[in-house]
Each structure stands twice: as C-alpha cells, then as structure tokens.
Amino acid sequence: MSFPNLDALYRTVIMDHYKNPRNKGILEDSSVTIHMNNPTCGDRIQLQLTIKDGKVSDARFDGEGCSISLSSASMMTQSIKGKDLKEALEMSETFSEMVQGKEYSTEHDLGDIEALQGVAKFPARIKCATLAWKALEKGIEENQK
C-alpha cells in the first residue's frame, strides 16, 4: 500500500534539512574530527564531535553531497546531541537497519530521521544516507582509544 501524502511529507523533511542544514559548520573545541567520503558518488563529510563525560555534547558537520547525504548528516547531528556514546551507537545501528529495509528497533525515537526510510527502495543511495553515521561510529571509536 502506498501513502502518497506520507511520501510527500518525507520528501519535504529531507529537502528542508538539505536546504536549511542544522549544525553545519566547524567546531572550535571538538574532541574528534572525522573525514569520510563516498567515492561512488563524490559525497564527502567532515564530522566533528565534542564528547564530555561520555556524552556527545556537540556535533557539527561540513561537506558536499547529495540531498540524502547532507540531510542525513543534519538529522544525525541534531539527534545525537546530549546522548551518551552507547545510545548514539545504538541509534546508528537502528538507522542502518532502517535504510536497508530491515526490521529495526523502535526503542529510540528517530523523529525526522524516519523520513529517510524510503532510501531502502534505492540500494545505491544507502551509502549516501549512512555516510555521516559511519563517520559517527568511527569518531566514537577513535575517541575511546
């Protein structure tokens, strides 16, 4: 069953985050900076995290890419602020499952991020959607070393 109004709403949310990205810019006091790219399509991201007391106290991104990649980064940085590292990693796993069309946990409220669930219909775009989240995972891993 198709929900055209829901699809239109999701497109609107994605385009809003693409045209008006949240948390785009540079952090002066970041704990970790991760550079990643998707060589398949040319998307690139620089993710900066400030981690204090085991929590993401701030997150910013910069880069270039498609609407899926940059809106995902905007939504991700917005959603992980204030989260402890374990919860941020769990959200990343949930997001990955969602965009691959798998059953995913509803333990965490994904909010606007659910607008990206349609990416599952376009396998070539999954890497675009997960680029910022992979950077998050790498950043947390580097911070814990």
Automatic annotation (TrEMBL):
SUPFAM superfamilies the record matches: SufE/NifU
GO function term, MF aspect, one: iron ion binding
InterPro entries recorded: NIF_FeS_clus_asmbl_NifU_N
GO biological process: iron-sulfur cluster assembly
Pfam families hit by this protein: NifU_N
Ranges where the NIF system FeS cluster assembly NifU N-terminal domain occurs: 10-128
NCBIfam families listed in its UniProt record: SUF_scaf_2
PANTHER family for this protein: IRON-SULFUR CLUSTER ASSEMBLY ENZYME NIFU HOMOLOG
Family per similarity comment: Belongs to the NifU family.
Name assigned to this protein: Nitrogen fixation NifU-like protein
